[in-house]
Amino acid sequence: MSIDPSSARTPAIASKLPAVGTTIFTVMSALAAEKNAVNLGQGFPDFGCDPKLLEAVNGAMAAGHNQYPPMPGIPALREAMAAKIEALYGRRYDAASEITVTAGATQAIITAILAVVHPGDEVIVLEPCYDSYVPNIELAGGVVVRVPLTPGTFRPDFDKIGAAITPKTRAIVINTPHNPSATVWSAAEMRALEDLLAPTEVLVISDEVYEHMVFDGAPHESVARYPGLAARSFIVGSFGKTYHVTGWKVGTVAAPAALTAEFRKVHQFNVFTVNTPMQHALASYMADPAPYLQLPAFYQRKRDLFAAGLAQTRFKLLPSAGTYFQCVDITAVSDLGEADFCQWLTREIGVAAIPLSAFYGGGFDQRVVRFCFAKKDETLVHALERLAKL
Prior knowledge:
By secondary structure, the protein is an alpha/beta fold. The chain has 16 helices and 13 strands.
């Protein structure tokens, strides 16, 4: 019996993520394109990477590196990452058993969560936070426990974090340098977390994708520096952020061998491996540390250029200690809430930003919006010319 096409129907399903719709980043980028606005909303550069890196990719493809690489990543890239982490943070990870190459940081985060979170396990997230954390936990069947960073300063509140830990707590997700607030955890805060977790079995997923964007001479306090944290942590990194190639979607995870073994069990089935020529190119390019060592100065100059222009407006600048984001208080500029203001700013002024409330589960509106300054100088100047109208 044949089925009449007009009567065919798609079976009903119960959504695994019923609260998830189109992200604010997609919405604002589409509006920016429609209004020909300067898009300072989404966090990616509008400039290219080092031509030497592109040459290395072309060379890798020409050399025949176009088939599946090993599941955890090519040995040369894992060795390069292990050497970098040891040089910068003083901890040696075994390249064979403790470093995994991932399809970007977002895949790394969900893979870590799926590897260790069982249905009913609690996972602490510190809000505001990157928008993939909560859906990842929910997909694993975990229970999201939201702990707010201190409003205004976005510092971690260890009394609140400690109060949120229960016998069901499986992990905590931390992020430094922090998206969206541009704050950076201090050594004292890392030690406080280390002490707090010492008597527990709580794991750490440490999102450190902006590790090379810490300003004003401050160091990046990776959990790798702290033995009590490193022993329980997945450390997530991003070549895309570091080398201005976010579309390549290549990242890494460093973790103790026992955690890495569980991570790779999931990794091999949700990605298996990561594109080969990019891995070979990155491995050879990393022989010179200068590109990532100069990154703090590179982005600090852009931060200062953008901040100097914003200082001529009625925006109140919040500190930007790291990342490539600048948050501003809009109270003196508009009576609108964050989301409505970002819509208005895009439509009427021609500059797109992101409301900070988008990074909270409850949509907490503090009258703060986020700009991205990972742009060409001329892009930033163009945006500032438009913002000068405010």
